[in-house]
Write a structure and sequence with these properties.
By secondary structure, this protein is α+β, with helices and mostly antiparallel strands. 43% of the residues lie in helices and 25% in strands. The protein has helices at 9-13, 23-29, 87-92, 113-122, 124-150, 153-164, 180-187, 191-203, 218-226; strands at 34-38, 43-45, 53-59, 62-67, 73-79, 84-85, 99-102, 106-112, 166-168, 171-174, 207-210, 213-216. The protein is globular, with a radius of gyration of 19 Å. The model is unreliable at 1-5 (pLDDT under 50).
Length: 227
């Protein structure tokens, strides 16, 4: 792990979890927060491991996933800049509940269990930020359970694209690479079915795939609003 000198108060100020802290507390944090880069494909934490630290994403993307003994996988979330993971086990003392893997080169901050708990005890704003993060994940889990129970594969694909899209020049666009295999693992369907749905969405004018990006057209927005 890189030494404390590699973590500045300016860097921590740009992390949503720490943004509200006064300069003095940020300076103290620079002494206990580590910083490290990981290549694509690195397993950061594994399900079942003891929980020893909280991680915060500075750059890059990671997937949170679970698998069974037969090798079947489900992707629970894609994490990107500013998001954090590993806090659940630090709070309830349970082992890691999921595996987190870098899907592109990434850089992470880490803070040990003892220092994280001290932060929670001494900083109400950080405790509230962690609580908001947990509530956000609970809501996302509720939404996923509902879509699995109530939506067909077309609806699940459409909702996922809507959730991952960002506004670019007034248009909703999925700019991050999203392999069909990963889509399948996120919505509980086969890769073949996802390929068929994506092709149908293009043919019907709901989406346009261009230059590695997926553009969501008006027809998609209307159909999603009706869902």
């Amino acid at each position: 792990m890189a030494g404390p000198a590699s973590v500045s108060t300016l860097l921590l100020r740009n992390v949503p979890l720490f943004a509200g802290l006064p300069e003095g507390q940020l300076a103290l944090l620079t002494r206990v927060v580590g910083r490290k880069a990981f290549p694509r494909g690195t397993t950061i934490i594994s399900a079942g491991d003891p929980t020893d630290a909280l991680y915060i994403v500075i750059s890059g993307r990671l997937k949170v996933m679970m698998s069974d003994d037969e090798g079947r996988e489900v992707i629970l979330a894609i994490l990107s800049q500013g998001e954090f993971f590993g806090e659940m086990g630090l709070i309830d003392e349970a082992p890691r509940s999921a595996t987190v893997i870098a899907i592109e080169p990434c850089e992470l901050l880490s803070i040990s269990k003892a220092d994280f708990k001290k932060c929670l005890q001494e900083n109400f704003d950080i405790a509230m930020a962690v609580m908001r993060g947990l509530v956000k994940r609970l809501r996302e889990a509720d939404k996923k359970i509902g879509s699995l129970a109530l939506m067909d594969v077309y609806g699940r694909v459409a909702r996922l694209l809507m959730e991952m899209a960002e506004k670019v020049d007034g248009q909703l666009v999925v700019t991050k690479k999203l392999p069909k295999q990963d889509i399948a693992k996120m919505i509980g369907a086969s890769r073949e079915m996802v390929s068929r749905v994506m092709k149908d969405l293009q043919t019907s004018g709901h989406i346009e795939v261009r230059g590695g990006s997926i553009f969501l057209r008006e027809a998609m927005l209307v159909s999603e609003a009706r869902a």
